[in-house]
Specification:
PH-domain like; 3 domains; seven-stranded antiparallel sheet; 12 helices; flat; guanyl-nucleotide exchange factor activity; PH_domain; ARHGEF39; Rho guanine nucleotide exchange factor 39
Amino acid sequence: MSFASSPLSPPGSRSVLEQRERWERKRILVGRELVQTEQRYCEQLDLVTTYFVEILKAKGTLRQDIRESIFSSIKSIHLVNQALLAHLEEGKFGLGFEQFCLNLQFYTAYIDNIHTANKVLLVQLKRNKAFRRFKKLQESRPEFHKQKLEDLLPIPLQRIQQYKHFLRDLTENTSPDNLEFQQLSRAVKAISEVAQRIQDNARSHENHLQLRRVQKLLKGRKTKVLAPGRWYIREGWLKTVPPKGTETKPKMFFLFSDILLQAKPCSPMHPTNGDKFACQRVYPLKECTVDKVFGHTKSQGGLISLTFTKAKLLLMSSDQEDINDWYRSLSLAIGQLKTKSTVVHRREELRRQPLRSAPDDQQTTPASQQPPSRKRTMVTEEVGEGSRSSGGPTAREEECQSKKMKLSETPAAGSDESSGFGCIIL
């Protein structure tokens, strides 16, 4: 039996068909899993909205502002996902996600509020006895399958991450000629942006917790660690080398995106600050340069030099890997800080005033006393010669008058329209 392709079928058409069949099988599997997980997701959203949001509203156990702080836009998310599920069950993936992406603002609002929701929930569980009993009673229902409210609140964030992977698989297994390909591609982009927002918010929250932790480690409140735009990088023990060559002293260093904080441990006998550190000095990284003195080879330990505007710091460690990590972290932090602080001059500041324009603080010379420009003088002489040669205006004179009018209508060189683009200094 011969499997040679018929003369009517072009070479390679069988492989194309096989590829499309593989795409279709993969698409069916991904679509089936998407529908099943969406059904479960909508059931979980229904548990929260029905047994918590609606009943709490009817009973008045929590004030409205507290309810909104905990549950945010989860009720709107439930309605949006019910509409999405209806499209998915009909196999209309592209149309379903196209309409779903029009309502992503409910997800972004929920994402931005999630850390506040967790905090308010913990406060209410600690202070509100009636809410604590209500929550325990609702979670004991068989529909919850031993899930707690704390487990259900983050599921919209988890679902966004799942959508990103489902949509990529669907797009990769959809023919570009299909109408759904463009719809799914746009949905991938929109949902990926929301997923990135989740990651950024998580990083920002984790950084805030680290800053608060370091702030609590420091004795007193004189040193302010919590500052807008500051990021925690690392911390650890390093030995400082005094300039006069005396004995090295171990110090605790905290590295942030804009400063290096040096501290020493408080006395363990202190009744309240025995486990804390006293800040000795804060070094700004903006004008800092870092160099590796030794530690380039496989020898034990290393030494790095930090040069500031008014100070110099030598840091040493017997662990070469540790000192190399410090060197890389410091170099990266200083480089990023200098990149952000690059001055970009405004275009207006870089505009050069024309040579013939008068300073702003001086009185402008009247037009009758200003010497005419070379071009304007030439036009005037041509007009005068034309008028002397004939009694009436000639074609040449009319042309010169037209040129004169155009010159008079030309904007001054110092105006915004005629000035060149400003340079940007990086």
